[in-house]
Amino acid sequence: MAVHFLFPAGGVGSRFGSDQPKQLTEIAGRAVMAWTLNACFETDRKGRAFIGLSAEDAAGQAIAAGYDELEVFTAGGERFETVLNGLNHMLESVHPFDWVLVHDIARPCVQAIDIQRLIDTVLVTQMGGILCQPITDTVKQASSLQGIPKTIDRSTLCAAQTPQCFRVQELRDALRKALDDGVNVTDEASAIEHISQPMNLVVGSSDNIKLTHPEDAALVEFYLTQQGRI
Ligand SMILES: Nc1ccn([C@@H]2O[C@H](COP(=O)(O)OP(=O)(O)OP(=O)(O)O)[C@@H](O)[C@H]2O)c(=O)n1
Ligand SMILES: C[C@](O)(CO)[C@H](O)COP(=O)(O)O
């Protein structure tokens, strides 16, 4: 079965706060979305690649047009809607049992070696999986900023990254069910958890950060430099 990429790229970056979608931010002369796509296309994926963009995002559309292998679909108002649009679009022409790697366009420091390890794990086990990172801080349960918070055993916790890889139809159906059931879906794994399916947790790299706040741009540049990509 093929392994495809789906890039949700319809966000506006409200927490980043610039006057354009954050994935258009230039780092060392190249847009964040281009750094992300270049890293992903270094992998041995043997599948197609789809990107969800807003119709108003002319600059994003222009960058996407520079990649022959990218197929564009229309993004939704929320991340899960973009992913759902993409999966529905894919199911018109790919095999439902194919695998899809969903990767935030806003994670430009992802390394091909980590994506490849996720792909290999999924294909060997024939079970979906996600890249993740063990939590290093002591974690408090804090429903308010007062009172005595509970400390949570961090050995049971990890931070979810992307890519997250599942079968195309299973993920589409799981996302739909999660939405029908009113479950808050911030990543693909949330939907798969809701249908009680197991998945692989593949430890990735701590530099696979998401460009979220303005200060993350300097970190992205630092990590890309450290990786020898700048
Ligand atoms: N309607 C949306 C919202 C988000 N995303 C994508 O989902 C990924 C992760 O989302 P996030 O970091 O939340 O991006 P934004 O929505 O752009 O940021 P913010 O929440 O700060 O507005 C990004 O690649 C973003 O482009 C998307 O495809 N469609
Ligand atoms: C998918 C994700 O990047 C995994 O960490 C995350 O869930 C996106 O959600 P956010 O609320 O926009 O950070």
Automatic annotation (TrEMBL):
<comment type="function">
    <text>Catalyzes the formation of 4-diphosphocytidyl-2-C-methyl-D-erythritol from CTP and 2-C-methyl-D-erythritol 4-phosphate (MEP).</text>
</comment>
<dbReference type="GO" id="GO:0019288">
    <property type="term" value="P:isopentenyl diphosphate biosynthetic process, methylerythritol 4-phosphate pathway"/>
</dbReference>
<dbReference type="InterPro" id="IPR029044">
    <property type="entry name" value="Nucleotide-diphossugar_trans"/>
</dbReference>
<comment type="similarity">
    <text>Belongs to the IspD/TarI cytidylyltransferase family. IspD subfamily.</text>
</comment>
<dbReference type="GO" id="GO:0050518">
    <property type="term" value="F:2-C-methyl-D-erythritol 4-phosphate cytidylyltransferase activity"/>
</dbReference>
<feature type="site" description="Transition state stabilizer">
    <location>
        <position position="22"/>
    </location>
</feature>
<keyword id="KW-0548">Nucleotidyltransferase</keyword>
<comment type="pathway">
    <text>Isoprenoid biosynthesis; isopentenyl diphosphate biosynthesis via DXP pathway; isopentenyl diphosphate from 1-deoxy-D-xylulose 5-phosphate: step 2/6.</text>
</comment>
<dbReference type="InterPro" id="IPR001228">
    <property type="entry name" value="IspD"/>
</dbReference>
<feature type="site" description="Positions MEP for the nucleophilic attack">
    <location>
        <position position="210"/>
    </location>
</feature>
<keyword id="KW-0414">Isoprene biosynthesis</keyword>
<protein>
    <recommendedName>
        <fullName>2-C-methyl-D-erythritol 4-phosphate cytidylyltransferase</fullName>
        <ecNumber>2.7.7.60</ecNumber>
    </recommendedName>
</protein>
<feature type="site" description="Transition state stabilizer">
    <location>
        <position position="15"/>
    </location>
</feature>
<dbReference type="InterPro" id="IPR034683">
    <property type="entry name" value="IspD/TarI"/>
</dbReference>
<dbReference type="Pfam" id="PF01128">
    <property type="entry name" value="IspD"/>
</dbReference>
<dbReference type="InterPro" id="IPR050088">
    <property type="entry name" value="IspD/TarI_cytidylyltransf_bact"/>
</dbReference>
<feature type="site" description="Positions MEP for the nucleophilic attack">
    <location>
        <position position="154"/>
    </location>
</feature>
<keyword id="KW-0808">Transferase</keyword>
